[in-house]
Design goal:
Helices cover 34% and strands 22% of the residues. With 415 residues, it is α+β, with helices and mostly antiparallel strands. It folds into 3 domains: 9-29 and 100-225, ATP-grasp fold, B domain (D-amino Acid Aminotransferase, Chain A, domain 1); 35-97, 2-Layer Sandwich (Dna Ligase, domain 1); 279-404, Rossmann fold (3-Layer(aba) Sandwich), CATH 3.40.50. Strand 8 (167-176) and strand 9 (179-186) form a beta hairpin. The longest helix is centred in the middle third of the chain and has 18 residues, at 146-163. The mean pLDDT is 92.
């Protein structure tokens, strides 16, 4: 036979097969979101009601290209399964509990014969629910205490030992109410490998090649960084006619940019300014869906006047902003065909930054916001759709400004 370098294929299967990996986590007493595989819609609905919506759906056979989706109700689940996928004994659907407002963490590591040689933990800026390829990722982590970091490292050590991993692996953690869950483990180099190698100065690729060829690999301590680095996605929605410019559980980005800074605000601002058409200079448009999201965004909205730009918004968002002392002019939505209309303001270049935080429980709002998002992209206007990123960008823009950004070479940030 052919000798396979690295981890035994049987152990790779134990990580890749959802049922086998779930049993492994149970044996190691590691938490995971509740999940099951179903061959009928009725059983999938019952499970979803038992664990509580929202749930994440992973079909085994896709009709419309929608590989995964988050469902917030029985109606969502039924519509998605009937329109986008098949469900049967031959094509089962996996349903797992989805935690809103949870934090997602990446652990990238290299092991040799079941012993972790180096492990680096990075943190998503967005809440969980954004594909890791589309997520903005910060290193070092900003909100995790030593106890949580240790818990993740111990989990990685135990998984590597049980699977006798030799080579690279990536674990995606979920953090909610100080409880650590594992979403999945991939026995391969992840998308974050080049980023974290560049930031830490540790050549993870060389280390895992040495591990594969049975060279002696010492344990490597990750240096404490006295700077921060952020990786952000690059999208090409303007070239994809009709595509919805929103990030979610399916990957949509076509590239990425990473920048360094003294702190997260500086690094994030540099990174984002590298991928957006222009820095906001003319006007800002907001559409915030639902009372809960409006309240969550209020403290950030109060910072907007400091940018010195006119603020425009949809009817309900404008009313909310004005009620809270933030001057905003109401613009009609595109389909309303009344003046002043947001589309007209886009076309006349009166707006160059759009914030649309959608309430996914309101179907009509989803359609309205899609039209605005698409019109913005078609007019070369950057759209932000995730609350955490938007909050960080506005704070960074106000606290740092363009004049506060340092230009340094990569060597000057080396540890």
């Amino acid at each position: 036979g052919i000798r396979i370098l690295g981890t035994n294929p049987n152990d790779i299967d134990r990580a890749e097969n959802r049922n086998k990996f779930s049993r492994l986590l149970d044996e190691l007493d590691i938490k995971q979101p509740a999940w099951k595989t179903f061959s009928t819609l009725e059983n999938a609905e019952k499970f979803s009601q038992d664990v509580g919506y929202p749930v994440l759906i992973r079909p085994s056979y896709v009709l419309s290209g929608a590989a995964m989706n988050i469902c917030f109700s029985n109606k969502d689940l039924e519509r998605y399964i009937k329109e986008a996928t098949l469900i049967s004994q031959e094509y089962p659907v996996t349903v797992s509990k989805f935690f809103e407002r949870a934090k997602e963490i990446e652990l990238d590591a290299v092991a040799q014969k079941g012993e972790v040689k180096v492990a680096i933990i990075s943190e998503h800026i967005e809440y969980a629910g954004v594909h890791s390829g589309d997520a903005s990722i910060v290193l070092p982590t900003q909100t995790l205490n030593n106890q949580l970091l240790k818990k993740m490292r111990v989990a990685a050590d135990n998984i590597a030992k049980v699977l006798q991993i030799t080579g690279p692996f990536n674990i995606q953690f979920l953090l909610r109410s100080n409880e650590v869950y594992i979403i999945e483990t991939n026995l391969r180099a992840s998308r974050t490998f080049p980023f974290i190698s560049k930031v830490t100065g540790i050549n993870l690729i060389k280390i895992f090649i040495d591990a594969l060829f049975d060279k002696t690999v010492p344990k490597i301590n990750v240096p404490k960084l006295n700077f921060c680095a952020v990786k952000v996605p690059q999208f090409s929605f303007a070239r994809l006619t009709g595509a919805d410019p929103i990030v979610g559980v399916e990957m949509a980005s076509t590239g990425e940019v990473a920048c360094f800074g003294k702190d997260m605000e500086e690094a994030y601002l540099k990174s984002l300014l590298s991928v957006i058409p222009q820095c906001p200079e003319k006007g800002i448009f907001l559409s915030i869906g639902g009372d809960q999201k409006k309240q969550a965004f209020l403290s950030t909205a109060k910072l907007l006047p400091r940018l010195g730009l006119p603020i425009y918004a949809t009817k309900k968002t404008a009313e909310f902003l004005n009620e809270n002392g933030i001057e905003a002019k109401m613009l009609y939505k595109i389909h309303e065909k009344k003046s002043p209309n947001v589309l007209n303001f886009f076309q006349k270049k009166k707006i160059d930054f759009v914030i649309i935080i959608t309430d996914k429980n309101i179907k009509k709002e989803l359609n309205d916001d899609f039209m605005i998002r698409r019109a913005a992209v078609d007019n070369n206007i950057y759209v932000m759709t995730k609350i955490k990123n938007t909050q960080l960008f506005i704070k960074s823009l106000i606290n740092k400004g363009l004049k506060g950004l340092e230009i340094k070479s990569w060597d000057e940030y080396k540890v």
